[in-house]
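Ticket reopened. Same input as before:
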Amino acid sequence: MAAWVAYKATQNVRTFVVVGLNGLTLAGLYFVVASGFTLIFGLMRVVNMAHGSLYMLAGFFAFELQDRLTGGEATSAFGSSEAGVGDWVLPLLGASLAIGVIGLVMQQVFLRWNQGQELRQALITIAISVIIADQALANFGGIAQELAPPSVFPDSVNIHVYALNYPFFRIFVLSAAVAVGLVLWTVIQRTRYGMIVRAGVDDRDMVSALGINIQLVFAGAFFVGAFLAGLGGVLGGTMISVDKGNDTQYLLIALIVVIIGGMGSLGGAALGALALGLVDSFGDVYLPEGYTNYSVLLIFGMLVLVLAVRPLGLFGRPA
Amino acid sequence: MTLDRGLRWGPGLLAVVILALAPLLFSDFYLSAVITKALWLGIAAVSLIFLAGYAGMVSLGQVALYGVAGFTAANLVMADGGSKVALNPWVATLLGLVAAVAVGLFLGAIASRSYGIYFLMITLAFSVLVYFFFAQVTQLSGFGGVNNVELPSIVGNPLQEPARLFYIALVVSAVVYVALRYIARAPLGLAFQGVRDDPERMRALGHNVPLLRAVAFGLGALIAGLAGILSVWWNTRISPGSISLSQTIDVLVIAVIGGLYRLEGAWVGAGVVSVLENWLRGVDLVGNRFNTVIGTIFLLIVLVSPGGLVGIWGSATRTLQSRTSSRPAGDTAVPPNEGGSHALP
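Engineering reply: fixed in the latest deploy. New output:
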């Protein structure tokens, strides 16, 4: 497959660069979404099946907020996109925090007293995702919406490779993903809180026996995990769009990323997101003419390959 | 003892009598839209319950497998007024089932080394991938799906003679139920249950655990495939919407409402959901928010009784018995690993 991509690359380097950048920026978005999913699972063994729903809800929340803030200027399909910095940053923070709180409430009300019952917790989050999907359809309709990025952002930037111009916001998302990754890594590896989280992943009971309030750690981690889904939803809603099917789509993305990378591993999530983003992007363009709609099979093949060699994912460890 | 037997066999006998006479008791619309639908949905759900209860594999891939059977069969017969192959509908049905089993065995082989929640996630990912596959590949389906599928002559026209398809679905349901009950007590079924309870020990006893799990999954795929074929006959079409995540969740909801560890629960759950769906559509109370109601019921059942409605019935009858007899009450909750044993304590 790599040889085929290399062959295609030599034929048209410009396409290769653009498609590669598309894959990288997509991977950035996938990483933001999947990192929250894997964080929650790694620490609590909770598979949050409502993660995609939280992603979608954040996009709709942010869209509504921006709509109110700009009086419909920035969000109208024909508008000249006059969104101030605040008109984008406020919805970003507002929606992500709201989603974080929703996640926290979900964990405290429904999941906290079912700890250790993995299947039951997964079923609970599935039930919640059914309700969210239906309510989102009722309140936000079934039309794809797009958030307007702040108008101080340029539309595209010159990346100084073959004098190509590339959409600025996609690069912004990639940088945001790198920043999220670095912050998470630093917190988990270098701070006291991170030390507790790492210890909690390895042995919950022992941490709790040492006098640490593990419930507080769980609540915090669930908030952060849901917040990241929200952050991804707003970034994705601006970079691509937010639509009623996004809950399924991003749940699948989070699942594939962590199945490939290994549940609970941040590095695995980064690698999985990279693999999925690149395969997604190159598959759509480089498959032979007339077969580009078979790109799903590439992802499927990747999944099968990883599972055949490492059933727990590339960086997965047994629980 | 009569109360004992009555509680145990009564509901089943009543259901059999009502179902046998259903075409006389209900309108054509109700028979087709509610009862026949509940029967094939029940078959889809029982494939999940069988895997969950007897093999310890909670699979969210059953809807994808019934999609494989349905799409294969629908693509091989006359549909949309034309087809490249146009096979006999029975041959196409057989090939559809073969395709479902083949894909099931393959997925089973891949996923069989993963357990518990990992298995659930892997099968869910497969399921959504199959959905996107059929949604994108216009040569096989595309978003519009395959319409006006030619049916075997025995089915007739499901709109004009709904009783025919009803009896077919009833017979298939009964055969599936009896066969699964039989397999559960046969050596193969006992091996599945051994793997469910303790894979390590089964390995030590010389069993090939991944193979057993893959075979169980293939068997589940066959049953799911039957549901897929019936769904194509019932709809006379199949589209990616028939195998979307919401359909996967619907089948899961049915299985959980019925009780994830009892075979008969599949049809109980399907019946409840189907009747409820039909009733709620006519009630203006909730408007179009049917899924919110179902989601809430699902949530309540998962929170209150993991054994579902059949589990609630079981604990209710046990409480009743302990009041009327001097025997100790025993454990009133349905043990999560009870699986095959239907004997009351």
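Residues 326-345 of chain B have pLDDT under 50 and may be disordered. DSSP finds 14 helices and no strands in chain B. Please confirm and we'll close it.
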